[in-house]
Amino acid sequence: MIASKLPHVGTTIFTTMSRLAAETGALNLSQGFPDFDGPPALLEAVGRHVLAGHNQYAPMIGLPALREQVGLKIQRLYGRILDIEQEITITPGATQGIFCAIQALVRAGDEVIVFDPCYDSYEPSVQLSGGHCVHVPLQPPEFAMDWQRVREAITPRTRLIILNSPHNPSGAVLSPTDLDQLAALIRDRDIYLLSDEVYEHLVFDGQQHASVLCHDELYHRAFVISSFGKTCHVTGWKTGYVVAPPALSEELRKIHQYVSFAGVTPLQWALAEFMAAHPEHVTELPGFYQQKRDLFCQQLAHSRFKFVPTAGTYFQIADYSAICPDLPDLEMAFWLTREQGVACIPVSVFYQRPPADLRLVRFCFAKREDTLRQAAERLCRV
Ligand SMILES: Cc1ncc(COP(=O)(O)O)c(C=O)c1O
Predict the structure, then answer these.
(1) Is the pLDDT of residue 282 over 90?
(2) How many helices (H) and strands (E) does the chain have?
(3) Are 161 and 294 part of one and the same domain?
(4) For residue 287, with 0-12 CB atoms within 10 Å meaning exposed, 13-18 middle and 19 or more buried, which class applies?
(5) How far is 44 from 191, CA to CA, in rounded Å?
(6) How do 315-319 and 360-364 pair as beta strands?
(7) What's the mean pLDDT in 226-231?
(8) Which residue range is the domain that position 248 belongs to?
(9) What residue owns the CA closest to ligand 1's atom 13?
(10) 252 and 339 housed in the same domain
(11) Are 329 and 348 in contact (CB under 8 A)?
(12) Which of ligand 1's atoms lies nearest the C-alpha of 167?
């Protein structure tokens, strides 16, 4: 028997629910991906670049043209001027960027603060580096940060804090005041930040995304991570980027070059071309997804689910305690998928220790209007 390095890791709930949705023919509002395609101009560009012979290794740190476009976008949206040679690295997916950042920083015995509920890739990456996660809970229903609890969780061994705003699964967003509070907490300590901002463009109701890239003090000790998969509706492309000050980028690249070496070449060409031609794409995204959120929420308002429209991401959390108060959320998710034809994700899987009375499921509304209407109709019958 091999002694597993990750004994507690099995098949993720995302794989399980998507498989079950496919087997049962349920509408798949579980895993976070759109059921529509990316912009035609972007798709068309990939084919063109493949045929034009852009098929060999890209530079390790990413295609210059793509890093340039990322730099321009960041300057436009967040006002930070980056050195694209030293501060931007293109990675095969945000997940790989997260993994490399953690491996670059965390040593055996180090502690990493994560906020529950949290995205599932953080903890295994920390474990593989020899560190361990200290879980600080966010409190439903708002899932707001409790900075006093963060203060209490910090020890001399704390090496890294992992932020995720807009937040998967709750959709909560951090404010500039949150970032100031965090800066004050870690000011005199040797603590770094990983800011997972893959949903940076999915912030609703006129709010601005409070990026760590806007915060001078925090940025100097941060890896900021984003995903073209989320931004361009092409999650299967697994292409993302990491922005970090030169010394941190240098360490990240040492890992990245031995995990994958580089991202996929023709995808990078296509993304660079699309970003240059369509800078409006990212500014139109909040409106695009807010419309979907509003449609789904308006329809769901006729159901017995309770919810507050999400502030960010393409996920909507819903409380089903008025429907099946005693049913644990994993069973509820299976029941909704098998019996009601709508697949979702139970929120407890995002916790180390879920609250006993948690009665929340997560729906992904990155779906066509007809899918959302049909799903809501089914949910209203429950
Ligand atoms: C919070 C969060 N971070 C990272 C990722 C992964 O992004 P990518 O597909 O680019 O690896 C996801 C995808 O669901 C996510 O929700």
Answers:
(1) yes
(2) 14, 12
(3) no
(4) exposed
(5) 44
(6) antiparallel
(7) 98
(8) 40-278
(9) 32
(10) no
(11) yes
(12) 1
Rounded to the nearest 5 percent, the helix, strand and coil shares of the chain are 45, 15, 40
| Per-residue model confidence (pLDDT) at position 105 | 98
* Ligand 1 pocket, residues with Cβ under 6 angstroms: 32, 93-95, 119, 164, 168, 196, 198, 227, 229, 235, 238, 240
The rounded percent of the chain whose pLDDT value lies above 90 is: 97
**Which residue, among 184, 175, 247, has the nearest Cα to 211 in the 3D structure?**
175
The per-residue pLDDT for range 290-325, each reduced to its tens digit, is 999 999 999 999 999 999 999 999 999 999 999 999
Q: What is the pLDDT of residues 176-212, one digit of tens each?
A: 999 999 999 999 999 999 999 999 999 999 999 999 9
Give the position, in ligand 1's atom list, of the atom nearest the Cα of 98. Answer: 4
Cα-based distances in Å from 215 to 80, 161, 279, 377: 9, 16, 23, 43
**Whether residue 236 sits in one domain with residue 274:** yes
Q: How many domains does the chain have?
A: 2
Spatial distance between the Cα atoms of 125 and 144, rounded to a whole number of angstroms: 25
pTM for the whole structure: 0.97
